Amino acid sequence: MQRVLAVILGGGRGTRLIPLTKLRAKPAVPIAGKYRLIDIPVSNCINSNIKKVYVLTQFNSASLNRHIGITYNFSPFSAGFVEVLAAQQTPIGEDWFQGTADAVRKYLVMIEETDVDDVLILSGDHLYRMDYRPYIELHRKKKADITISVIPVEKSKASSFGLVKIDDEGRVVKFAEKPTGEKLNKMAVDTSSLGLDKKEAARFPYIASMGIYVFKKQVLIDLLKKNRAQDDFGKQVLPSAINHFQVQSYLFHDYWEDIGTIEAFYHANMALVKYPNPSFSFYHPESPIYTHQRFLPPCKLVNNEIVESMLCEGCVIERATIRRSIIGIRSIISEGVVIEDSLIMGSDFFKPHDKRMEDLSKGKIPIGIGRNSVIKNAIIDKNARIGQNVRIVNQDGVQEGGNEKDGFLIRDGIVVVMKNAVIKDNTII
């Protein structure tokens, strides 16, 4: 794996994840209370012994730079690195990244200078655990020019993905990016050829690209240099490449979730609290997910009722009720608070108890969740200040609404309180 370079696509503006991406790049969005999205593909690379990693991004990359800089430092005697490459003016182009392929094209000079044989293209907004070694070994064994990682999907989700058709040898013979209508129907296949039983094959009649590709280095360079009008891998590069190159498929058999929307992000987080068998678990001794090492104290819990939830380091929780929720680092939750089916991202810093009491005496709202507040089916971003007797329950069942000036938005029926927002006492959302 020393001859493999990983390139993680950080995405564009992340509009589907607003307001979580209002102040940060999409790969820097926190997940599970203590990690960031970028930790998933980087950890998969490290666990696969791939230690040459570029992360391409172009929006709000300051916090992402900081996180990667303090988290992924390899030995000075190692050739490994994890480096953010932000969009910039270069001799190749002065524009923003125009698509996934264009983002890689603009940094081809860096790729050409890296002494590797294969380039692994990854996405920065997927939740999964994958050992890339069998994937790359198959790519090399088949002597493929490009290998696409695929997964069976049901019809209701199929039009959200790039779909492929393969022959008996696993070679990709057709690629369609997010087809609908009759074009979608034509991409249906008998997925029992992938090893699914008849019942599963009937449920999952489509083969979807996971947005994970392995290219021979020179093939990638030639494709991007010769086809400069092709800016996107799924829409342009791959559909045209199958006619001229050997494009192979690799079937992934485990949990994988695209969490590029607020709804998907919320449900992916809520699935983590299920016990004892969540769809995805961070409790894996052989393939851990790495993140920034923090020196935080244990949680302090005072007479709480906590059911099927995850608590991260440095929390202080007093006489609260928490059900099916994730409580992020440094969260301060006051007496009488009820939290259900929610993600509380926590805080970037501590504020001592006496300072919090001083703020309250002055009529200020300190970071954390104030007394007797109720939060259900919500995402509370970092450093939010929730006052006393606040009800965040979306009592009117609004699907899309809210206002950034008020400190919250509602997306897919989920209330998202923004980073650094202040929600005043007695507010009802």
Describe the structure.
It is a single chain. By secondary structure, this protein is α/β, with parallel strands linked by helices. It has two domains: 4-271, Alpha-Beta Complex (Spore Coat Polysaccharide Biosynthesis Protein SpsA, Chain A); 300-423, UDP N-Acetylglucosamine Acyltransferase, domain 1. The protein is 22% helix and 28% strand. The chain has twelve helices and 31 strands. Strands 1, 4, 5, 6, 8, 9, 10, 11 and 12 form a nine-stranded mixed sheet that branches. A seven-stranded mixed sheet has the order 16-19-22-25-30-29-28, with helices on one face. A five-stranded parallel sheet has the order 15-18-21-24-27, with no helix packed on it. A hairpin with a 3-residue loop joins β2 (30-31) and β3. The protein is globular. It starts with a strand and ends in a 6-residue tail after the last strand. The mean pLDDT is 91.
